[in-house]
């Protein structure tokens, strides 16, 4: 239940997360487009979305523990803590990491009943500034500070929130005048714009009314300059001075289990290694974000401080530009989940982007791959339904750079393999895209996975450890072992006909699995050919054309 004078309870927290996720989903491409941080990699909107998505999932897990229609509901404290924890473990990029600390700061005040929204916003802004090694004005930090100042301590939550939103919006409008990099680009700070969306979602969750019209992201009518992949722009949230040689080469992010004193020493060491340092969290769990030239040293510093995990290292292309070369006419860029598929697609002439489990790709990574392909025309194969919006944002950004991009909405790597098989770079672009789209659309896709916990599926209730057979994204079979479940999935998929089966084998495939499945197809489905590929990191996947 909400405390005295407090308008936020567990259901409001749940609604806040849902509304914020919806708002960031609508604005994600726009936020990515105005991102002028260390490299113009266009991922601020995506990072904020993924951070809030993780927070929302944690809150939903709290609600899922209660039976529908039960007399009791989750405690407000449980919902707030779940939101802050989810944001912390799922925080992505500079802005996402800072947002996680803002949510944590609010939680500390509201859960301990040290005050209402006004006090929570002020605590949030202070804690976020403390988490950033070298804060400057004109960033998400400025917007957060303005929101806290605008909410008066004597106001109740329903009065404090509109004032906070108005103060944040005014501060956002001022960011181009505070940072030259924003002024030159003619945009407001992308992280600050995202925070405004999150505050607007809280205002709507509490009052039931949508916030006033959104602030314009551009301050002048001129295009946002796009940096060459080798160029770098100073990160205004952390450093006002350009980095030597165009900036560090790597972004390093990891979760860290460590004590306060060890983290204090870690901050000093990482601050000496690079820039864009943000360390958020507490109570033994931290999210560490830094840009460095020596990624190994950044990880080793984490090992010395405690136990780092979920380590993510992204390479920034900071090498000097190569000698100009004439672009090729056409290229294919494909996202793949394993090294084996990367080799397969590269052999077929594609530029690949490796997607690792639990690490959603930012649109900037896809834009960099499109640039790396160095072609006038590019066919983009995301090979994952979760990448639909991210791929669309990357395609749109590449188009502003003069590249003709066609996005084929492939939902699985086996659909991408089918599309790549009919790719002919010598025919007209539109004809090639139509043929590839047709081949992908004619390919049904299946995947085998292991259930992590008990849950309801479209095929019934599964238990932890069950093998799940998915067909076209839905659970169709629940089995006890990989081989027999795969056979059932194959039979289901081939019941509607098919001429070619594609099998992608995982690293840990049981000995003889490929032969067993190929023999199964041969026995039960005459005239159906089978092609087997080594996924090397990918799960067991099945395609039927």
Give the oligomeric state of the chains in this entry, treating copies of one chain as homo and distinct chains as hetero: single chain
Biggest β-sheet, characterized? 6 strands, mixed
Q: Which regions contain 5 or more consecutive residues with pLDDT less than 50? A: 1-5, 215-245, 318-322
Name the structural class. Answer: alpha/beta
Number of domains: 4
Beta strand %:
15-25%
So, CATH architecture of the largest domain?
Alpha Horseshoe
* Rg on CA atoms, Å: 25 Å
Strand order of the largest sheet: 13-12-9-16-14-15
Report on this structure.
The structure is a single chain. The chain has helices at residues 10-33, 44-64, 76-90, 93-111, 117-131, 140-150, 157-178, 180-185, 190-207, 260-273, 295-305, 339-347, 363-373, 388-400, 413-421, 429-441, 482-494, 513-524; strands at residues 250-257, 274-282, 285-292, 307-315, 328-336, 351-354, 375-381, 404-407, 444-450, 455-457, 460-462, 467-471, 474-479, 500-505, 529-534, 541-544. It is an alpha/beta fold and 545 residues long. The protein has 4 domains: 10-207, Serine Threonine Protein Phosphatase 5, Tetratricopeptide repeat (Alpha Horseshoe), CATH 1.25.40; 244-315, ACT domain (Alpha-Beta Plaits, 2-Layer Sandwich), CATH 3.30.70.260; 328-441, Rossmann fold; 444-544, Hypothetical Protein Tm841, Chain: A,domain 3 (2-Layer Sandwich), CATH 3.30.1180. The strands form 4 sheets. It has a 6-stranded mixed sheet with strand order 13-12-9-16-14-15, with helices on both faces. It has a 4-stranded antiparallel sheet with strand order 2-3-1-4, with helices on both faces. Strands 6-5-7-8 form a 4-stranded parallel sheet, sandwiched between helices. Helix 1 (10-33) runs parallel beside helix 3 (76-90), helix 1 packs parallel to helix 14 and helix 6 (140-150) runs parallel beside helix 9. It is globular and about 80 Å long.
């Amino acid at each position: 239940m909400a405390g005295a004078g407090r308008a936020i309870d567990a259901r409001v927290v749940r609604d806040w997360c849902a509304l914020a996720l919806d708002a960031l989903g609508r604005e994600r491409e726009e936020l990515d487009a105005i991102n002028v941080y260390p490299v113009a990699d266009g991922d601020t909107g995506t990072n904020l979305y993924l951070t809030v998505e993780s927070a929302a999932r944690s809150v939903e897990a709290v609600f899922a523990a209660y039976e529908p229609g039960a007399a009791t509901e989750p405690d407000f404290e449980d919902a707030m803590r779940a939101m802050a924890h989810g944001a912390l473990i799922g925080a992505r990029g500079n802005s996402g990491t800072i947002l996680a600390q803002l949510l944590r700061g609010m939680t500390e005040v509201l859960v301990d009943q040290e005050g209402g929204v006004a006090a929570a916003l002020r605590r949030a802004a202070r804690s976020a500034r403390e988490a950033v090694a070298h804060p400057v004005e004109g960033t998400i930090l400025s917007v957060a500070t303005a929101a806290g100042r605008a909410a008066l301590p004597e106001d109740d939550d329903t009065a404090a929130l509109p004032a906070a939103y108005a103060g944040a919006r005014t501060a956002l409008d001022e960011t181009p005048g505070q940072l030259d990099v924003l002024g030159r680009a003619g945009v407001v700070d992308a992280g600050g714009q995202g925070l405004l969306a999150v505050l607007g979602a809280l205002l709507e969750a509490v009052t039931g009314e949508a916030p006033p019209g959104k602030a314009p992201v551009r301050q002048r009518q001129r295009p946002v300059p796009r940096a060459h992949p080798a160029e770098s722009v100073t990160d205004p949230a952390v450093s006002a001075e350009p980095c030597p040689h165009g900036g560090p080469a790597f972004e390093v992010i990891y979760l860290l289990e460590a004590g306060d004193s060890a983290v204090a020493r870690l901050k000093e060491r990482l601050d000496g290694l690079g820039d864009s340092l943000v360390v958020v969290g507490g109570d033994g769990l931290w999210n560490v974000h830094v840009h460095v030239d020596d990624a190994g040293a950044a990880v080793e510093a984490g090992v010395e401080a405690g136990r780092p995990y979920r380590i993510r290292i992204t390479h920034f292309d900071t090498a000097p530009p190569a000698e100009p070369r004439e672009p090729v006419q056409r290229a294919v860029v494909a996202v793949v989940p394993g090294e084996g598929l990367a080799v397969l697609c590269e052999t077929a002439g594609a530029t690949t982007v490796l997607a690792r489990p639990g690490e959603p790709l930012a649109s900037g990574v896809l834009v960099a791959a499109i640039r790396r392909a160095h072609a006038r025309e590019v066919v983009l194969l995301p090979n994952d339904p979760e990448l639909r919006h991210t791929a669309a944002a990357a395609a749109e950004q590449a188009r502003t750079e003069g590249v003709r991009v066609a996005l084929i909405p492939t939902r699985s790597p086996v659909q991408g393999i089918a599309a790549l098989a009919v790719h002919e770079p010598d025919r007209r672009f539109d004809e090639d895209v139509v043929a590839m789209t047709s081949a992908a659309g004619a390919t049904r896709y299946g995947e085998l996975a292991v259930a992590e916990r008990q849950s309801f599926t479209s095929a019934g209730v599964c238990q932890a450890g069950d093998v799940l057979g998915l067909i076209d994204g839905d659970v169709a079979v629940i089995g006890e072992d990989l081989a027999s479940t795969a056979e059932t999935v194959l039979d289901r998929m081939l019941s509607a006909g098919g001429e070619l089966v594609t099998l992608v084998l995982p690293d840990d495939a049981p000995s003889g699995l490929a032969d067993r499945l190929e023999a199964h197809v041969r026995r039960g489905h005459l005239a159906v050919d089978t092609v087997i590929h080594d996924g090397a990191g990918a799960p067991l996947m099945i395609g039927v054309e």
